[in-house]
Hints:
- By secondary structure, this protein is α+β, with helices and mostly antiparallel strands.
- Helix content is 19%, strand content 41%.
- The two termini are 29 Å apart.
Amino acid sequence: MSVERIILEMGAGNDLYGQDYTKAANRAVQDALRHSSLIFFRSLDIPSEEMTVKVTIGVQEPDKVDVEAVAATLPRGRAEVTAVFGGQNVVDTDNDTVSVIATAAVEAFVDIDQSKWKLTEPA
Length: 123
């Protein structure tokens, strides 16, 4: 068995008025998830609970992201969420507000028994 990455999706999210880094992070993760459909779990009879989901959130203030709250929004698999420096803050000095932009990379990994797969030559 070897652990293989089976998906990589990216997303972006923001909080325009509340300067809430967790809200922006959640929106970025949900944006990434909307781009993917993991139907092969059902097709290949692989329990989705066996999947590890690694999420990396990029924001200007990583310590303000509640990574446990972000992990709780993932619908399947075992979540591992980390927040790193990235994303962007957009300052509106006229209105004294900061809009938070978060980016998310969502990676899914499963153990694959390579002995069950057969490579074939192209026709």
